[in-house]
Amino acid sequence: MTVVAPPPLQPPPAAPSGPRTSVADAIAAMAAAVQRGDFAGAEAAGAAAEVHLALPKQALRDLAPLSDGAQACVFSAQLAPECAHLVPGLDPAAPGGLAVAVKRAHIRNSADLDRFRREAALLAQLRHPHIARLLGARLLPPGYQMVLQLEATSAASELHSAGWRPAWPRLLRLAAQLAAALAHMHAAGCVHRDIKPANVLLNAARDAARLADLGLAAAAAELAEGAVSHAKPTGGFHKQRMVGTLEYMAPEVLLGSPHSPASDVFALAVTVNELATGQLPYSDCTRDNPLAHTILEMGYGRQELAAAVAAEGLRPTLAPGTPAPLRLLLQGCWARQPGERPAAGEVASALEGMARAAEAAAAEVAAEVGAEAGEACRSSKVAAAAQAPPAPSAAQEAGQPASQQQERQRDMPGGAAAEASRDADMPDAAGLADAASAAPAPGGPTAGGLPAWLAAGGAAASAPVFTGSFLTAGKRDQMEDMVVVLPDAFGTAGAPGCTAVGVFDGHRGASAAEFLTHNLQQLLSARLHAAAVGAGQLLAGALADADVAYRAQQDAVWAVRLARMGAAAAGARPAPGSTATLVLVYPRRQPGQAQAQQALAVANLGDSRVVLCRDGQAVQLTRDHTAELPNERRRVAAAGGACAVRAGGWRVGAAGLQVTRRASIGDADLKGEGVSAEAEVAEVALTPRDAFFIAATDGLWDRVSNEDAVALVQDTVKHPGMCAQRLVLEALARGSTDNIAAVVAFLNSDGSTVERVYDHGQLKYGGAAAAAARRKAAAATPPSADELQDTY
C-alpha cells in the first residue's frame, strides 16, 4: 500500500518590511506590472503599500453575500487568523474581531477596472471616522476585491425593512456625522455623486454612520472639465452623462451639468429628510401631483419626475414636526441655484449645533422626569411584569376556564370574541379553522428556560421572512403611525428564527406609538420566559406590560410638570394612546413530526388589521375593534362607558374615540369608559399555501378592501417595500386623508424580486423563478482569463 504524505503546511505570509509606498503609487505600479505580465512584481508592489493591496487568496474565509449592485457585490467574511497581522487595526482576540466586509468588482472592461482602482486609492486617502474604512485589498487578476470594515447594517435597510425611525437627537447626530464626512471629501477635492441611505452604513447601536460606496466619486476639477468617464448609475436612471440615483439628483445635474460639491449637498439634504420621514423621496405623492410619481409607474415615468425637480421646483416632502432650524437648512440645501446652497462644512457646523442642542434638551427632560420615567423605570417595570403571572383575561375573570378560552381562540383565527358566538360583522376566516386547530399547542418551559412552543424550533427550521414597510402622514400635520420590524426578535435569548412585526396607530400625540416602537424588543424578551401557553399569550402580555410602563412614565412626567408649574398653569393633562397590532412568525416542531413548522401569532388592539394571503385569497386574521360593532357597544356599556353617534359614526366617551380597544398603553382617561387594553389573539399554522401577510393601520383599510390589497401585492414586483408603498399610495389615490403605515411580509420566499404573474389568484408561470435562479447562477460564474485580457 502506498502512503501519500499530506502537503506541507504553508507558513503564514510575512508582514512587509521596509519603507511603505503610498496607495496611489502602489496601484499604479501594480497596474503597470500586470500589464507586462509580471504578476510577482505586482504582488510585491501591493504588499509594500501603506495598506496591503495584495492580500493572499487564503486570507478570507466564510464569505456570505450581503448585497449585489451594478458596480460590485459585497460579502461578509472572516479574516484568517494567520493573516491578521497584514491588516492593522483588527483585534483577533475580540468577539467578531476578524469580521470584515469584502467588495468584489463587476469588471466588464478596462473602465470598470480603472474605477475600482480609483475607489481603493480614494478610500485610502480619505481617512475619516465617518467614511468607510479600507483595511486591505487584492488588486490582482482575476478576483479584484477590497477588504473594508464590516458595519452592522445600512440606513436604507433600517428605514425601509426594519421600520426604524430615529428620534430627533439621534437623527441630527447622524446627519452631522455624514455632513462632516462629506466636508472632508470636498476638502480633498472629491465629489461623491451618489449620496443616499443605501450608501450610509450604521453600527449595531445605530448611533454612528459611515459614508460608503465611493465607486462613482471623482475629482471636482476633472468633473468641471468634463474629463471623467461615467459609469452606469446605481439607481437605474441613465441618460447621456448623468450618474447617480434619480431621486437624489440636484436640478442642475438633471439638466446636464456635471456633479459638484453643491449637488452632493443637495443629495445629503434629501438623505437627511428621508431619515426623518422614513419614506423614499417623492414617493408620497399621488395623481394630484403626477410629476412626482416615481416608483410604481402608475401612469407616470421617471423623466417626468426629472422635469418636475429640475424645472418646476419639486422637492421632497418635509417630515411633520421637523424643527424650524433643520427645515430652513434643508430648504437652503435644496435651492435651485448651486451657488445659493451652503457648503458641506457649513451644513456640518449647523447640524452639529442642532444635535448638541437636541441632546442637551433630551438630557434635561430625562433629568427632570427622573429615573422612574427613564430607561430604568421601563426596564424595572417590564422586568417586574415579566416575573408576575399573566393578567387574567375577561373570560377568566368571568369564571370561564382558561382551557375553554384557549379552545375558542384556536377556533377563531380572527381573534377571541367576547361572546361564545362570532359576531355577525366579524370578518370571515373560513378556511383557516383547520390550520388554526393545527396551530402550536400549549406547553410548559423547557429545560433551557424557553417555552416549549418555541424551544423546539430554530433558525435552520424557519424559512426566512422578507419584510418591507412604508409610511406617510397623508394630509395630516403630524405623523402618529409607526411600524417596527424585528427580524431576529429572540436571537439574543437563544431562540433564533423569529420575526416580529408591530404596527401602531397613535392618537392625541405620537408618544405612545413611539414608546411601543422603541421598547418592543425589550417588552417581548421580558415576556418570553413567562409565556408558557403560547405565542399569542406572549404578545398580549407584552402589550399589557407596555400599558403599565407607559402610564407610569406619563404619571412621572405629569408630576414633574405640576411641581414645576402648579396645577393652574399646567393645564389639562394629556392622555395620548395608540392602537397596537403585533405579529410573530416563529418555528415550531410539533410532537411526532421530524420537521419544524412555521406558525404565526397575532395580537390586536384597535382598528389596524392583518390580512393573510392563502391560496391567492385574502383572509383577515384580526377584528376591527370599533364602536360600529354591536357587541363592542354592549361591552363598553357593560364596563360603564357610553357610545354615541358623533362625526358620522359611533364613538366612545367624551373624547369621541372611534375604536373601543386602544393599544395596551395610554388613554388613561378612558380606561373607566370601556376602552380596554385586553388584546385579542390568534395563532395559525402556516403552510406553503400562505404567500404573504399585510399589517397596516386603518388609513389603508378605510379605502382599500382586503381583496384589493392582496391583488395589488400580487400585481406588484415582489419586493416587500415596493408592495407596501403601492398599497399606501393606492389608499391616498382613493382619498385617504389619514396617517398610513403598512408592512408587507413575504412567507415561503427566497427573497427574489423576480416578477410573478397571477391568474385568478394562482401563479400563472411556475417556471419563472427556476429560470431566474439559473440565470443568476450563470451570471455568478467568474469570467475566464481570456475574457478579461483587455482589463489587464
What report would you give on this structure?
Residues 384-406, 427-441 have a biased composition (Low complexity). By secondary structure, the chain is α+β, with helices and mostly antiparallel strands. The protein has 3 domains: 23-149, 2-Layer Sandwich (Phosphorylase Kinase, domain 1), CATH 3.30.200; 156-366, Transferase(Phosphotransferase) domain 1 (Transferase(Phosphotransferase), domain 1), CATH 1.10.510; 392-562 and 574-753, PPM-type phosphatase domain (Phosphatase 2c, domain 1, 4-Layer Sandwich). Helices cover 35% and strands 17% of the residues. It contains 24 helices and 25 strands. The strands form 7 sheets. Strands 12, 13, 14, 15, 20 and 21 form a 6-stranded antiparallel beta sheet that branches. Strands 1-2-3-5-4 form a 5-stranded antiparallel beta sheet, covered by helices on one side. Helix 1 runs antiparallel to helix 2 and helix 10 runs antiparallel to helix 11 (344-369). The longest helix is centred in the last third of the chain and has 31 residues, at 535-565. The protein starts with 22 loop residues before the first helix and ends in a 12-residue tail after the last helix. Mean pLDDT is 76; it is low at 236-240, 286-300, 371-444, 650-664, 764-769 and 781-792.
Walk me through the topology.
Layout: H1 23-35, H2 39-47, E1 60-68, E2 72-79, E3 99-105, H3 110-125, E4 134-138, E5 145-149, E6 153-154, H4 155-160, H5 168-187, E7 190-191, E8 200-202, E9 209-211, E10 218-219, H6 220-225, H7 251-254, H8 261-277, H9 302-311, H10 324-333, H11 344-369, H12 375-387, H13 394-397, H14 402-411, H15 433-437, H16 452-455, E11 466-472, E12 481-486, E13 499-507, H17 511-528, H18 535-565, H19 567-570, E14 577-588, E15 597-605, E16 609-614, E17 617-620, H20 630-638, E18 643-646, E19 649-652, E20 665-666, E21 680-685, E22 690-696, H21 698-701, H22 706-714, H23 720-733, E23 740-746, E24 758-759, E25 762-763, H24 768-780
Antiparallel strand pairs: 1-2, 2-3, 3-5, 4-5, 6-8, 7-10, 8-9, 11-23, 12-13, 13-14, 14-15, 14-20, 15-21, 16-17, 16-22, 18-19, 22-23, 24-25
